[in-house]
Amino acid sequence: MTLGLTQFGLTHIALAGALASCVAGIGGFFYGTHVGAAQEQAAQKRADDAAEAVRAKLQGQIDASTERSQAAEYTRQANVREIYHESQKVVERPVYRNVCVDADGVSLLDRAADVANGAGVASAAGGAGATAKGAAQ
After folding, report:
1. pLDDT tens-digit series, residues 62-100
2. Which residue of 51, 80, 111, 130 is surrounded by the most CB atoms within 10 Å?
3. How far apart are CA 129 and CA 115, in angstroms?
4. What pTM was estimated for this model as a whole?
5. H runs (alpha helix) in the chain
6. pLDDT, tens digit (0-9, with 9 covering 90-100), for 28-48
7. Per-residue CA distances from 115 to 3, 108, 121, 135, 137 (Å)
8. How confident is the model over 93-121, as pLDDT tens digits?
9. Using an 8 Å Cβ cutoff, are 102 and 93 in contact?
10. Residue 128: how many other CB atoms lie within 10 Å
């Protein structure tokens, strides 16, 4: 009986040892996975912190550039005076390039000459017939 019990005990001990080693291997696997994940997270955090530092530095440069640009634009606008003048132009007669004065202009000049010479104005405005003859003589 001792022989059977010893074989039975050794088999159980061997199975228990194999089971313990499997459990240890599985535990080691999960421990290694946990440690590896923690290392990866730490490396990712360092990379994120470095990227954030670069982003903050560039954002600071952008903000400073924007402030300088706004100050320059404010200075430029303070030195510029804009005057808005709106005028309406009405053209009733066409403008001829080879004629200096049209018929109405000639009659006005003749009337002005008559008034300056002391002669009475005999015709109404626009009636240049008699006045033009008198000025031409």
Report:
1. 999 999 999 999 888 887 777 777 777 776 766 666 666
2. 111
3. 16
4. 0.37
5. 2-79, 103-117, 129-136
6. 888 889 888 889 999 999 999
7. 160, 11, 7, 12, 17
8. 666 666 666 778 888 888 888 888 877 65
9. yes
10. 19
Tokens at 26, concatenated: 């599985």
Q: CB under 8 Å to 96, separation ≥6 — which residues? A: 102
**Which residue type sits at 76?**
R
The per-residue pLDDT for 83 is 73
Side chain identity at residue 53, one-letter code: A
Side chain identity at 106, as an amino acid letter?
A: V
* CB-based contacts of 1-4 (< 8 A; 24+ apart in sequence): none
